[in-house]
Specification:
The complex is a heterodimer of chains A (about 290) and B (about 270).
Chain A lengths: L12 H21 L9 H8 L1 H36 L2 H7 L7 H12 L4 H8 L19 H25 L2 H9 L4 H30 L2 H6 L7 H10 L6 H35 L4
Chain B lengths: L2 H25 L17 H8 L1 H34 L5 H9 L6 H14 L6 H27 L1 H9 L4 H12 L1 H16 L3 H7 L6 H11 L2 H26 L8 H4 L2
Classes of the chains: A mainly alpha (about 290), B mainly alpha (about 270).
Chain lengths: ~290, ~270
């Protein structure tokens, strides 16, 4: 007699063990943000949301991450859509992925080397006589608007978007396009009726990955940001690693707030995708 | 339509190749001062200065060691989970997949801060092992995804065949699955090493500044070193994944059905 067997589920053992790490880490962070060792309190959240420094920082982080994500997705989508027959070949594909060979902060240094006020671009423009002094070059790195951070992220994430979208474009069967054409559809119909349904799950997932990363990563803003406004990750790292341990709960509260935003967004995203998939299975797409 | 390849070439050269060429040119010449009329001064001084730093070599070996172990663990977790997601019947599969992806959607900084106290208690803070463990968090979800995709491409029929013929788990793995997973192994190697090399904040938190990896040397270098040395250092970061990739490629050759002279004689 062979009824329910547990054996195949053993394959999940390594991933279950692994998942304990992030879950335990996040749970501890949440507990600490509510003051686990000094009596339960909401005081740390009150403190950060009453401090102008944190609220400004949160707004700045959300804005920077959102712009970086949208630009990466948009540019990556346009490049993949325009060039996917070329990108099928190995040499063009590998050359587009060059930025992925470098860590983010190294690419951040490259942006400084190229675009800072003493950088290569400023020097070349001065030497060519377009601007009279390198100091007249616009401030693009360590600027208060996060331009340097956004530039670095977009430059690094566009190859990732291409990497994620390329298999999708390669898998769209040309018959679908032919169908749109025979029915007298335009290029716009091709995009909305054929490509978008294929792309939507991947686009959603890629956007979430990029948004989470740009919102919460420390390295690039630490290198290319200013002290005001600063990204939440830099602020939290300072609170966590600063001279006094008093501010550690604030670091936890700040990072937990960010995690909360991201979890809600992911939940909405995946919930929407599941619903769309369910409707597609039922055959009712209207 | 003929414009397309040309436009693609221009975009690729300008945005993807030129930056790295500039980085290379700067690393082989003295810091540039074009407005004062000076040109390129070719020299190797930056590499001498960089490679003479004993800290750099120590950090390079630590980074490679950490990256290697992280990669091995990624392959194990990724292969097991990829196979499980493809072959084991599951209710609510999309949610399981989302859950397994969630470690890269939650800020890794929050996870590292939370795990820090646990690491201190377990004696893993300030150790290489602790850093290896925390580097799993931002890498494993990608590996699971890549191996899962590959297993799905292989298909359940192909996976059931050796099972029906009565071969055991490891025999299935080494003769059927791993040879077919070669592209996935390559992508995972590459991604894992680069992500592991990219971690400054979580390495500093868990390693407590005692575990010196390359990023921990790179950040303080920015304060003191000139553009030439920094460019050389930047390129150094790209050398490591390439070396690791070559090593893994050599290991992959040992798998069955690889094109090896001594195998093709049969």
């Amino acid at each position: 007699m062979k009824s329910f067997s547990l054996k195949p589920y053993l394959l999940f053992l390594p991933s279950v063990l692994f998942m304990l790490l992030p879950l335990y880490g996040l749970l501890t962070a949440v507990l600490n943000s509510f003051g686990r060792h000094r009596g339960w309190t909401l005081d740390y959240y009150r403190q950060i949301f009453e401090s102008k420094r944190f609220v400004m920082s949160l707004a700045f982080s959300l804005q920077t991450a959102l712009i970086a994500t949208l630009l990466s997705i948009l540019i990556g989508l346009v490049l993949t859509r325009s060039f996917y027959p070329i990108l099928e070949k190995i040499t063009p594909r590998v050359s587009v992925w060059i930025p992925m060979l470098f860590p983010h902060f190294v690419w951040g240094y490259l942006v400084i080397l190229l675009l800072s006020e003493t950088g290569v671009a400023a020097q070349l423009l001065t030497a060519a006589g377009w601007i009279s002094d390198p100091q007249h070059f616009p401030v693009l790195t360590r600027d208060p608007h996060g331009i340097g951070i956004i530039l670095t992220y977009v430059w690094k994430e566009v190859p990732l978007v291409i990497l994620m979208l390329l298999p999708v474009y390669a898998s769209i069967r040309p018959e679908y396009y032919a169908l749109v054409d025979t029915l007298g559809g335009s290029v716009w119909n091709r995009i909305t009726a054929v490509e978008l349904p294929h792309l939507l799950p991947v686009l959603m997932e890629t956007s979430l990955i990029i948004f989470s990363f740009t919102l919460s990563a420390y390295e690039v803003p630490a290198l290319l940001g200013t002290t005001f406004p600063e990204m939440v990750s830099v602020l939290s790292y300072d609170w966590f690693y600063g001279s006094s341990w008093q501010k550690r709960p604030l670091a936890f509260a700040a990072m937990v707030s960010i995690s909360f935003v991201l979890l809600v967004l992911s939940f909405i995203g995946y919930g929407y995708l599941n619903k769309a998939r369910w409707r597609a299975v039922k055959g009712n797409r209207s | 339509m003929n414009q397309r390849p040309r436009l693609f070439l221009v975009i690729t050269l300008l945005f993807f190749l030129l930056p790295v060429l500039i980085l290379a040119a700067q690393s082989f010449s003295a810091p540039w001062r074009f407005p004062s009329g000076s040109g390129l001064d070719w020299e190797l001084g930056s590499y001498e200065q960089l490679l003479q730093s004993p800290m750099l070599w120590k950090a390079t070996f630590t980074s490679i060691w950490i990256g290697f172990i992280v990669l091995m663990l990624n392959v194990v977790i990724g292969v097991f989970t990829g196979k499980a997601l493809t072959t084991v019947p599951l209710k609510g599969r999309p949610w399981v997949e989302a859950l397994l992806l969630s470690p890269i959607l939650i800020p890794v900084l929050a996870i590292a801060m939370g795990l820090h106290i646990f690491m201190i208690r377990a004696g893993l803070a300030d150790t290489v092992l602790g850093v290896i463990i925390i580097h799993l968090v931002p890498t494993v979800p990608y590996s699971i995804k890549i191996f899962h995709n590959s297993y799905q491409q292989i298909g359940r029929a192909m996976l059931e065949q050796p099972h029906i013929l009565g071969s055991g788990f490891f025999r299935q793995l080494f003769t059927i699955e791993l040879p077919l997973l070669k592209p996935a192994l390559r992508s995972v190697t590459f991604l894992t090493i680069v992500i592991s090399l990219s971690q400054y904040a979580i390495t500093a938190i868990i390693g407590g500044g005692r575990v010196l990896t390359l990023p921990l040397v790179f950040f303080p270098f920015l304060e003191s070193a000139d553009a030439s040395v920094m460019s050389a250092f930047s390129l150094w970061f790209a050398v490591i994944p390439v070396v690791m990739y070559t090593l893994v490629e050599a290991v992959i050759l040992l798998l069955p059905y690889s094109r090896l002279p001594w195998r093709n004689k049969r």
